[in-house]
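Q&A log
Question type: sequence-to-structure
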Amino acid sequence: MKNPDVRSGPIAPTLVFLSLPVLAGQAFNLLYNLVDTYFIALIDRDDPWLVGSTGLVWPLFFIFLATSFGITGGVSSLVARAIGAGKSEDLDKTAESGLFLALIASGLILLCIYPLAEPLLRLFGGTGKILEYGLSYLYWLLPTVPFMLLSAVFTGILQGEGRTKHMMAAMMIGTVVNIILDPILIFAFRMGIAGAGLATAIANAAGLAYLIIVFLKTQSKVKIHWKASSVSLPVAGEILRVGVPQSLMNFLASISFIFYNRIMISINPLILTAFTLYSRLEQIALIPIWSISSALAAIAGQAAGAADFKRMRDSSKTASLIGLGVSGCLFLIYVFSSRALFGLFQSDPGVLSLTGVIVPWMATASFVSIPVFMVSTIMASSGFANRSLLMTLARIYGLNLPACALGAYLIGGGISSVMAAVCVSSFLALALALLVQRVFFARLEEGKLSVRLAPASAGRG
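Response status: OK
Response body:
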């Protein structure tokens, strides 16, 4: 298939074309997650705390991901808007400015997390074996951070340009390296769960190495001078303007896991292991959504730069419909096969029983949230990430968490009541997102909102 024009090509084929390479990369990433979980479980399949300890560490890992997503989102939005507006000169110092931010963020994260690892995991509800395993995993996982954040800069440039095949290749390389290293480090080197953390760090380093080679050897609309003098504080500020709300959005989602974990543990500690397994396996149905969202960011960002609000609206609707169709089928398959899938990773009957309750409710909640995710992507990619942040705050802290607490402590007090309450809150969040999107586009079309370009531009806003 000929490469479609991101700026003016037909929306559905362009979305599919741009999302397929990301989908392939995400499928490899899913394979890694499943294999990683499987090898961790193989250390002792009768020990439910091994897999559960990765769920204990997840809020911190999500913070790393949140920072990464913020950098990618900020860089991607800047690149896409500048390309859409035909302001290629605004891209000149994007790469070095993004790399500067990534290095600063990496240093801050490592300086904070290493000395505070144990108190943080205790805060998340860790005690006994699950705390011991969690600390061992986290200490060897932390070197991942600088590789992940530096890769986020190059990924953001590629996403903004619509060059998704290189994103796919980087994910595939990281996954293959991780799968190869997991059994070697976990079993041959007898590192146990720590080996899984180290394998992830080395795999991210391999992905970064590939991305650097891509930018050394291929042409990009973003010039990379590989000089510290090319760092531009105004450009870094524009990346932060869009990226910080996206990081906060994901960070606040991470913090919410602390409350979810404590609520779940207060009902039954084994729920943490069951929920960790659910989250890992749910990616089977989620990867098309992430892939479509990545494609949507390029299309909507370039359309925003050109002030083509109709194309932005149409791309949001088309992305939501494709996501609902594809992921809806995958969620159905997941629900009906979940018992067999979970049995591959865990033999504890208590955990398996809990997953039978969790899967149908959470799959429904995730399915309903697909258009919410697309609305958030549209606003962030067009430079209005602060609105995505406010919507996320309302969804998580105004709806989902209160619903979870109501189900746990006031209505029934069991896992079924918690899951039902979370599902209802997801329907309310969908209604909120559709209302927010309608107001957002109305204000754009009326001229009450204007799309900003890079700091040096004389364009709108």
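Response note: The chain is about 80% helix and 0% strand.
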